[in-house]
Amino acid sequence: SMDESRIARIEALFAGWGAEAPGGALSLLQGSEVVLERRFGRANLEHAVPVAADTRFRIASITKTFVGAGCALLHHQGRLDLDADITTWIPELRPQTPMKLRHLLTMTSGLRDSMESMVLRGTWFRYPRSSQDLLDLIFAQTTQCWPTGERWVYTNINFNLAALVIERVSGQAFDAFLAENFWRPLGMADTLLCDSNTQSVPRLADPYVPAPEGWQKGTWAFGLSGAGGLVSTVADLARWQGMFRRGGLHGANLVELMSRRGVLNSG
Questions:
Q1: 191: closest CA among 103, 83, 81, 65?
Q2: Strand order, beta sheet including 192-193
Q3: Could you tell me which residues are beta bridge partners of residue 58?
Q4: Residue 198: half-sphere exposure toward Cβ, Cα within 13 Å
Q5: Of 22, 31, 80, 108, which has the fewest beta carbons less than 10 angstroms from its beta carbon?
Q6: Buried b / exposed e along 116-146 (16+ C-beta atoms within 10 A)
Q7: Can you list the positions of beta strands (E) in the chain?
């Protein structure tokens, strides 16, 4: 159980969240037990819909933890070698310097990210229209930002490509693979892939951006596919966190595999 002073400090963190402003949800875990739940503000301003226990949110780059776990599981099962050349699964990719799957997962590939590619092609769409749009851009690249393994730079396209590897190794769509191996076993019934701004998702909170006069509607942008396409609830994410705290799933030590430090060429 939580002591009152700690609860008061947590309440103070969110004191500025107005009841009529865009909101959020909080679950506090001790071990794998939820010991405090709080909800703030609204999921939709136009209709004054409050954030509820079952409100879904776009989880953005937390999606990447599912990609990492998927690759780790396939590696544990002997179906995927993290140190094999990336072109084993993605022959469309033309890296200048040899590249392993592990380089994608440790953000050391040296590949140009989606947003840079969009700017460089000279036709600027504010948002990519589909996951395939991003893949087409990277497959058209003949150069890298720097040689593989030279630097660590957070690059979204690495995880779009890693999700594609999961699909090609498993023979399943990215979300079907996640549902079978993670969501259903863990009881994550409210988690799904939402790879489009036009897809209708029940109970999904709307994004807003601060404006001089109140709030403007936001538009979901670059988080497509394995880079950030998932939607979930706080309760489902607590289940996901519980899996990490237990160390893995399906007899696989996923956490040990996922937390191995990458090494640059320089050592």
A1: 65
A2: 57-58, 230-232, 192-193
A3: 231
A4: 4
A5: 31
A6: ebbeeeeeeeeebeebeebbebbeebeebeb
A7: 24-30, 33-40, 42-44, 49-50, 57-58, 192-193, 208-211, 214-217, 230-232
**Is pLDDT above 90 for 189?**
yes
DSSP character for 145? Answer: S
Place 126 in a pLDDT band, splitting at 50, 70 and 90. Answer: low
- 168-186 pLDDT, tens digit each: 999 999 999 999 999 999 9
Yes or no: say if 138 and 117 are a contact pair by the CB < 8 Å rule: yes
Range 204-210 contact pairs with CB under 8 angstroms and sequence separation of 24 or more: 204/43, 204/55, 204/56, 204/57, 204/58, 204/231, 205/22, 205/23, 205/43, 205/44, 205/51, 205/55, 205/56, 205/57, 205/58, 206/22, 206/43, 206/44, 206/45, 207/22, 207/58, 208/22, 208/45
Q: Would you say residue 127 has pLDDT above 80?
A: no
Beta bridge partners of 217: 208
Inter-residue contact 159 to 227 (CB < 8 Å)? yes
Distance of CA 209 to the CA centre of its chain: 21
CA dihedral (168, 82, 74, 160) in degrees, to 10, reads -50
Residue 2, SS3? coil
Average pLDDT over residues 80-109: 97
* Sign of the dihedral through C-alpha 71, 77, 79, 81: positive
